[in-house]
C-alpha cells in the first residue's frame, strides 16, 4: 500500500512545530536572561549613580551624626525612592576600611517594606561588618568605572552588585554606593517572558497548521485526485469526449487544468499589482505632503519679530518635503529675545521627527529661565537617553538682554555666526559638542555685547555649502561679502537669500537652507538743544513734564532740572547746552551737557563753601542732590556732563 501524502504532511508539520518551539524557547530564554541582566545592571548603575549624586550634595559628616536627624531621614527616603523606582533589591552607602578589612555602613534601604526594616537595623548607621573588599569595590574605590555588575552571595541572598564611588569637593573618593538586584529574579523573569512567547507561538502555529491542512486538502489533495481520475478517463477514452476540468482555484491546479485561463489570471494579477503600487505611491506622496505642512507649522518658512530696540527675522527652506533644519525666535517672560538654530543629521522624515523633539525641548528649557548652555546641556541629556537611531543635531542658542545689548550664547557644534553692523566679522565661538552624541557634553555659556545698530547672523551649513552648476561652494567669503552693508535683520536675511539662490541658479538644492538674524537697535535717547539762557526754562520744563509722564515725582524732577539749568545759564558762560532723557526700567535719567567753564558740583571744595561764596554758581546743587536719587558728573571732550537719575513711582499722576 502506498504511503499517504496527507499523513506524511501531518507528521512533517507536527515535527516542525516541536522543533521550532524548542528552538524558540531556548533562544528566548537565553536572550531574555541576557537582556534582563543587562537591564538590571543598568538600573543598578543608574541607582548607584543617582544615590552618589545625592550624597555628594549633602554634608556626609553631618549625615553620619545621627540616624534620627531630619537630613538622615530625608536622605534615606530619597534612597528608598530610587531603590523602589528602579526595582532594586538593596541600595546602601558605606565606607570601606582596607587596613582593618571591614566596612562601616552609613545607610541601607530595601524595596520591600519588611526587608527594609531588617536592613535598617542590621545594616544601619555605623554598623561595622568584617569583609575583604572585592576587586570591583577596589576598582570603584580607586575612582574607576566598573565594566559590569558582579555576582555576590551574602547573608541577604544571591545578588548581583554594582559599586559606585562617592567623591568630595576635590574629587577624592570618600565612600561607596552599593546597589543589588537578585540573580534569581533574572532567571524567573526570563522564564516567564519566554513562556509568554512560546505558549502563544505554539497556539498560533497549531491554528496555522490546521488552517493550512484544511486549505491544502481542499486546494491540493482533492484537485490532484480529480486530475488523476480525469487523466485516467481521458486515456481510457482515447482523448474523446474531453471536458474541461473547470478548476478555478487560482493556483497551480488551475494552471495544469487550463493554461489559457492561467495566462489570463497572470495578466490580471499583474495589473492588480500595478494598481496597488500606484495607490501606495500616491498615499506616500500624500503623507509626505501632510508631513511637510506639519513641519511648516513647527518651523515656518519665515518669521519676523520687531520692536523699537530689536528686530529678528528667519527663513527656512528644506531640500526635500521635510528636513532636519530648524529655528526658533521668541520673547521670554523677562523681555529678553531668544533665538535658536539647529541642523539635524540626515534628511527626510526621521530627521524631521528628531528636529521637532529637539526644538520643543530647547524652547521649554529656555522659556523656563535656563541660560543657553544650561538649556543645551539639559536637552542633550534628554536626547541621549532616547536616541535609538544615534541621530544628532548641531545647535546655536542665544538670549539677548534688550536693556544692555548683552548677548548670552552657547554653541553645540554649529557653524560660527557673523556679527554685522558697524563692522562685519565672524564671531569666534567654542566648537562644542553636537546634541545627542554624548551625555554630560559640558557646553559653556559665553557672551558678547552688541553695539547699537549691530546684529548677529546665524545659519546652517546649507548656506555656505550651497552648490552651483559648476560644483562650487558658496563659502564663507561670499557670505561676508553678501551681508557687508546690511542694516537690519530683515535686510540681512533677504540679502543673503538672494545672494545664495542667485549663486545656485538652476542647480539642485542638496541641503536644507536656514538663516536667522537678530538686530539690536539699542536704546534711543531723546535729546533737546537749548540756548543757555533763562528764557529757555519753559521749553525745558515742558520736556521734563513730558518725559516724567505726569508721574507723582514729576514736581521734584522739574525743580531739580530747573535748578541745574539756572546754574548753567547764569554762571557757566556756555555757548550751547543740551538735555537728553532716557526712561528705562522705572528710572528717568536726565543728562545735561554744556561747553562752559569746567565745574564739578560734586567736588569736596564745593561742600565747604560759605553762603556768600555761591555767587559764581552751585547754590542750588545741594537742593538737586536732595531731590535726585542719583547724581554723576564728568568732563569729557571739553563738555560738562551732569547726569541725574530719578526713580519713577508706580502710583500714577500728580496728587
Concise account of the structure shown:
With 655 residues, the chain is an alpha+beta fold.
Task: Report strand %.
Answer: 15-25%
What is the total tally of β strands?
22
Describe the global form.
Answer: flat
Fraction of residues in helix: 40-55%
Report the end-to-end length measured between terminal Cα atoms.
Answer: 122 Å
Which segments are poorly predicted (pLDDT under 50) over 5 or more consecutive residues?
Answer: 260-265, 606-618
The chain-level mean pLDDT equals: 81
| Helix segment tally | 17
Tell me the Rg in angstroms.
Answer: 41 Å
Which sheet architecture does the biggest sheet show? 6 strands, antiparallel
Structural class: alpha+beta
Strand order within the widest beta sheet: 3-2-1-6-5-4
Account of the 3D structure:
With about 650 residues, the chain is α+β, with helices and mostly antiparallel strands. Helices cover about 45% and strands about 25% of the residues. It has 17 helices and 22 strands. It has helices spanning about 5-55, 60-65, 70-85, 115-120, 135-140, 185-235, 250-255, 260-300, 350-365, 370-385, 460-465, 475-480, 490-505, 535-550, 555-570, 605, 620-625; strands at about 90-95, 100-110, 125-130, 150-155, 155-165, 175-180, 300-305, 310-315, 325-330, 335-345, 395-400, 405-410, 420, 425, 445-450, 455-460, 515-520, 525-530, 575-585, 585-595, 630-635, 640-645. A hairpin with a 2-residue loop joins strand 19 and strand 20. Helix 9 crosses helix 10, helix 14 (about 535-550) packs antiparallel against helix 15 (about 555-570) and helix 15 (about 555-570) packs antiparallel against helix 17 (about 620-625).
